[in-house]
Amino acid sequence: MNRQFQSSPGGRPLRGLFVSGTGTDVGKTVALAALLRACLKAGVRVRPVKPVQTGVSGPDDARGDAAVYAAAVAGLGNAVAPATLRRFVMPASPHLAAGREGVHLDVESLRAAVLRHWEGDEDAQGLLLEGAGGLHVPLNDSEDMLDLMESLGLPVLLVGGNYLGGINHLLLSVEAVAARGLTLAGVILSDTQPVAREDEDTLAIRKDNEALLRRRLDERGAQLVLLPFEPDLHSEPRASLAWQALADVCAPLVETVRRACDPCAGEEAAARIEDMQERDRQSLWHPYTSATEPLPVFVMARSRRNRLALADGRELVDGMSSWWTAVHGYNHPRLTAALRRQAGRMPHVMFGGITHEPAVLLAERLLDLLPEGLDRVFFADSGSVAVEVALKMALQYQQGMGRKEKSRFLTPRGGYHGDTLGAMSVCDPVTGMHTLFRGVLAQQIFMERPSCRFDASFDPSCLDDARRAFEEHGHEIAAVILEPVVQGAGGMWFYHPAYLRGLAELCREHGALLIFDEIATGFGRTGKMFALEHAGVAPDILCCGKALTGGIMTLAATVCSQRVAEGICHGGQVFMHGPTFMGNPLACSVALASLDLLAGGAWQRQVAALESSLRTGLSPCADMPGVADVRVLGGIGVVETEQPVNMAALQAFFVQRGVWIRPFNRLIYLMPPYVSHAEDIARLCDAVRAAVMEKKI
Ligand SMILES: *Cc1c(COP(=O)(O)O)cnc(C)c1O
């Protein structure tokens, strides 16, 4: 079993609070010990846990905080020395102290250690996890304590010092917590030093800190507790009275802790989830569903890496990359940072008569990635719109060239290009529901789907139908549009790249443009940056989208050759398209960050690893009853069944097994985030095999 998994079926979701200081020496240990006393007195069984402690040699090291806690809870009959999960001798940041001992700390393993500890302590109602120093205390070169907090998702209690400058540290920390989507449960403002009655300035600063903070926290619905300086914590016999005094001050926070630890919160949460689902049914419409008899939906609350957390705390291994988009996994820090940075500068501005750096840089970067001969980028806000733009470009080009009769499109069956009217007209006429829109959809020309498999030797006769179509309709074909190598939503079919070379030849012969729809295949999914690289063919127009922003924002692009641009624009003509949110700076900035990540090159190794794990995991299905075909290419694994699957039942089965897989029609397919570990891919494949074996299909 994968021990990193937060809630394997039957496991209980992690409960408690994460307590972080705004820096070192802000009185966090005392505050936490006092809160612990208050909780235990009120019968809330919380356990203090330090994921990392530095400056100690062993559990009984007197330099540790054990003595403070022991004093704080003296007389309560509970032994509550904080559990330290990782310990290092050097009194420094975890990053430095661990490095000194040749240890590399990382969020993934610390999180696993926390969850293991939690699973092993059946008696605890919740954990009080304690950070080290402030939020941005580094764990390694790229991860901070805040990343660990984000990965655990618990509400946060901040402890800050009540002194000059303390308000700044607190407000920065409050903002950082909010930016990670974490709930701020409360703030303890702690007097770390005694103050003389006549020191009016210090008194005024403390008072003002409190007042200002209270106003700011009220807006956020977070509690504020003022912890006074207690001189007697270490001097028997008054220590226990002093600790009790501090615990009393913390009493208002006990309710917060209780709520964060309450197993009944599970029932409350279940009611909230049901309520959300019901309201969804009342007011929403989901993709490809009935409004009056909708399919069930799952309420999702958080995401990270290749995991999705349901609102009930269950965590699922993602097998879909949210429809081809989240190639780097969810919440990638570089992507969310790019989004925040641009949001602070200029979230959006119209693109008519205005340009901006994110759009210019992104266009240049895209052109660098694409083959020679693609020269100009038109940004659209979704894949379907990018396809509309491509079709319009082709039509305007042919008009510009004085070939008005070239006004139809040739496309293979089994394609998918989007859901708007123009895009729909070139989708597969059966699965694209053309009968529903007969009379409205433009009548396009269809040819057979490229029949030669990707992994078979090329059979030139698979181009015969294309040749026939050109002979019959060549004079009226403005362009051929197709998905290179992988037909996605129309059937997850992988065909031989040589088909594209033959088709490009036919287009040239008949004066038709070639449009590649790389919206699904672009950015590494098939093992090449773009699927066209399998064939070595450059189209006249290319659409990309989906993974362009790494799954964070909607953005697509239509890229064309200079020849096409000139054909459209000669004689003072203009291209007639302009989406309101064209070139949205947020989306462009995130896309740039995503391309930066791809430029690192790790995706090639990752996709190759995905391919081999998918092959290993899915190929046993090939011989099972009910399975028509199994195929794998790059980061795409497909089990094609003989009969259409029961989507709702199968999806529920998968969720039960801790994976997120959304099959459709006769296809159970996987396209996990590139960053997924092999054991997670195995888990996804296990679930698919189980579904087939247990005849859930
Ligand atoms: C998803 C997809 C589209 C449509 O993109 P949207 O962003 O959903 O409009 C077009 N073409 C292909 C190949 C796709 O996979």
Could you estimate the helical fraction of the residues in percent?
25-40%
- Name the CATH homologous superfamily of the largest domain: Type I PLP-dependent aspartate aminotransferase-like (Major domain)
Structural shape: elongated
- Biggest sheet: strand arrangement: 3-2-4-1-5-6-7
- The figure for the number of domains is 3
Task: Note down, in words, how this protein is organized.
The protein is α/β, with parallel strands linked by helices and 697 residues long. It folds into 3 domains: 16-261, Rossmann fold (3-Layer(aba) Sandwich), CATH 3.40.50; 333-599, 3-Layer(aba) Sandwich (Aspartate Aminotransferase, domain 2); 602-693, Alpha-Beta Complex (Aspartate Aminotransferase, domain 1), CATH 3.90.1150.10. It is 38% helix and 16% strand. It contains 21 helices and 23 strands. Strands 3-2-4-1-5-6-7 form a 7-stranded parallel β-sheet, with helices on both faces. The protein has a 7-stranded mixed β-sheet with strand order 11-19-18-17-14-12-13, with helices on both faces. The chain has a 4-stranded mixed β-sheet with strand order 8-9-10-22. α2 (66-72) links the parallel β2 (46-54) and β3. The radius of gyration is 30 Å and the shape is elongated. The two termini are 25 Å apart. Pyridoxal-5'-phosphate (PLP) binds next to α13.
